[in-house]
Design goal:
This protein has about 300 residues and is an alpha+beta fold. It has 2 domains: about 120 residues, Nonspecific Lipid-transfer Protein, Chain A (2-Layer Sandwich); about 160 residues, 2-Layer Sandwich (Nonspecific Lipid-transfer Protein, Chain A), CATH 3.30.1050. It contains 10 helices and 10 strands. It has a 5-stranded mixed sheet with strand order 3-2-1-4-5, with helices on one face. The C terminus is likely disordered.
Length: about 300
């Protein structure tokens, strides 16, 4: 049951962030997101995930995060159990209860159905550029990292031993995400040099590597409001040679250690911090590879 809870948290977060990321990559989704809506994905006793469209822009929140403007959901998709959540979001039969809450319920449901089908289609299409595939896979990977760190007791000792700090994962071609580790908690933070939230590109084209700090810097520096562009400190960078190299690792086809040995990836800054995240990513990958039915059958 405990592992099903972790898997359900991962499924909620990854699904919400992938459908939001796919919105700008599919013309049909752009049409479906032309009017505002707010959708909530919920499992009892787990943090909900939110997908919201405001003025044509689709955003997602998960793991207890929430939009600054807390409005009622137009539609809530309620999964009665973690097992149902895992099965339905994995494409298998399961229970889900649509609960309308506003005038945009129909819009939210149409968008979600289309986006949930579009995201895997974009990832699998041979016509998808490596940078787009890397962007979606990185979105899924950081979501899985955050939820695994929050819910899985197995990884907490490994995170406790890793130093705190901010890690930038650079997949090439301006595909970047920044993660902040404090204790056993991971959270997305804005990329340094931006004020638009996680995943935005560096300001004025300055590369993330220009801002990396030495491990000898003061450990408490830069822990202010993460929304300020001058308050985010980079302690380490995991940089891939190009998006294709990032895709190989993020899709699970190649271990990160192998990519590092082949010079397809590099670590700069606090190496133990990135190594701590590797332990969580390995654990998250195991969850993503396990079918919800198998988890439930063994009572895990």
């Amino acid at each position: 049951a405990a592992e099903l809870r972790v898997l359900a948290r991962i499924r909620l977060a990854v699904t919400a962030r992938l459908v939001a990321a796919a919105a700008s990559r599919d013309p049909a989704l752009a049409e479906l997101s032309s009017r505002n809506f707010r959708l909530t994905l919920r499992v009892p006793w787990l943090p909900r995930a939110v997908v919201a469209c405001l003025e044509g822009r689709v955003s997602a929140w998960a793991g207890g995060e929430a939009p600054a403007l807390r409005l009622p959901a137009d539609l809530t998709l309620l999964f009665p159990s973690a097992r149902d959540c895992c099965r339905v979001l994995d494409g298998a039969p399961g229970r889900v209860l649509p609960i309308p809450g506003g005038l945009g319920a129909g819009r939210a449901l149409r968008f979600f159905r289309a986006a949930a089908a579009a995201a895997p289609r974009i990832l699998k299409s041979p016509d998808t550029p490596p940078a787009v595939r890397a962007e979606l896979l990185l979105e899924a990977a950081v979501s899985a990292l955050i939820e695994t760190a929050a819910e899985d007791s197995y990884v907490r000792p490994r995170l406790e031993h890793a130093p705190d700090g901010t890690v930038v994962v650079d997949a090439g071609e301006n595909v970047r995400r920044a993660l902040r580790k404090e204790g056993t908690r991971l959270q997305l933070v804005p990329m340094p040099g931006t004020a638009t939230g996680p995943g935005a590109g560096p300001k004025d084209g300055v590369g993330a590597e220009a801002a990396v700090r030495s491990g000898a810097d003061r450990p408490g520096e830069g822990r202010g409001n993460p929304a300020r562009t001058d308050a985010v400190r980079i302690d380490a960078i995991l940089a891939f040679r190009d998006p294709a190299a990032a895709v190989a690792v993020l899709s699970g086809k190649k271990p990160a250690v192998t990519a590092l040995g082949a010079c397809e990836a590099s670590i700069r800054g606090l190496v133990p911090l990135v190594q701590g995240l590797f332990a969580v990513l390995d654990r998250a990958s195991r969850y993503l590879a396990v079918q919800a039915e198998k988890e439930a059958r063994h009572g895990r």
